[in-house]
Amino acid sequence: MGIIGRFKDIMASNIHAIFNREDKHPEQTVEKYLGQLRRDLGQVKAETDAYKMQYDRAQRAVDENEDEIAKLERYLERAKQAKSTSDARQFERKIEKAKEEGLVLQQKLAQAKDDMNKLSAMNEKLGGDIATLEARLAEIKGTLNAASQQEQWNKMAKKAGAANPDEMFDQMAEKANYALDRANAMAELEAGPNAEADRELESLTAKYDDIPDNTDVADSTSAPADFQNIDPEPSFPNPEGDTEQLFGPGPGF
User: Fold this and answer.
1) Torsion angle of alpha carbons 171, 175, 180, 185, nearest 10°?
2) Is the distance from CB of 10 to CB of 121 less than 8 angstroms?
3) Rg over CA atoms, the chain
4) Verdict on whether the full-model pTM lies above 0.70
5) DSSP assignment of 33-75
6) Distance between CA atoms of 138 and 130, rounded to whole angstroms?
7) Is 229 helix (H, G, I), strand (E, B) or coil?
8) Per-residue pLDDT of the chain (253 residues; tens, 9 = 90+)
9) What is the Cα–Cα distance from 32 to 176, expressed in whole angstroms?
């Protein structure tokens, strides 16, 4: 049976019906149904070329028949103008026969056109069903993978002695934090007692790293270069000494 003979079954099929079944392996059911739909679509595409050729032949036959009738009618008019009754009757009989053949050709063309419309409808229906099932199949596989992953987490949690995967992750995080704290403590011990002092010095000097040295300000601990050349404080004359020097020693000396 050709694909056209299955037109009603294909168009009446409901892909959603397969999801109502209680199946332990729904993905296998969907994949099997998808395989059938893909084969049907392949047959539609393969037979479309053959039916298209039939349609083109039927259309050419109709066009040729109409051209033949038009030609015979022109000759009929010429025979009538020539007042040739016998020739006119012959053209009339040929025209009548051509028109009868034309009716048959029109029916074949209509059938070929109907077949093409059916093929187009099946192509659209099958293509849409395949796209829908592929999306649903991906969804089903995703759900199954998630369920399988959850089962693995549950087994790991049970093996680790946790009530659920969340508790297992909490335990893992707690162990990781403990390991980090221990590593930091070991690093501080290896740094030695001067590590804290070194950090304080680094923090203190960091505040002044960006300040340039001021070379114009003299060192307050050093004396000016000319200070040594300053005269010592002048001495004033001793009144008593000066009197003795001028008048000599007094009486009794």
Assistant:
1) 130
2) no
3) 58
4) no
5) HHHHHHHHHHHHHHHHHHHHHHHHHHHHHHHHHHHHHHHHHHH
6) 12
7) helix
8) 588 999 999 999 888 777 666 666 777 888 888 999 999 999 999 999 999 999 999 999 999 999 999 999 999 999 999 999 999 999 999 999 999 999 999 999 999 999 999 999 999 999 999 998 888 888 877 776 776 676 666 666 566 555 555 665 566 666 677 677 777 676 666 656 566 666 666 777 766 777 776 655 444 444 444 444 545 555 545 555 444 444 445 444 4
9) 48
Distance CA 60, CA 108 (A): 11
Q: In angstroms, rounded to a whole number, what is the distance separating the alpha carbons of residues 43 and 118?
A: 13
- Which residue's structure tokens are 């399988």? 148
Tokens 């109409």 belong to residue: 66
| Residue 219 to residue 217: CA distance in whole angstroms | 7
CB atoms within 10 A of CB 9: 9
Q: Which amino acid is at 253?
A: F
Residue 155 token pair: 């087994």
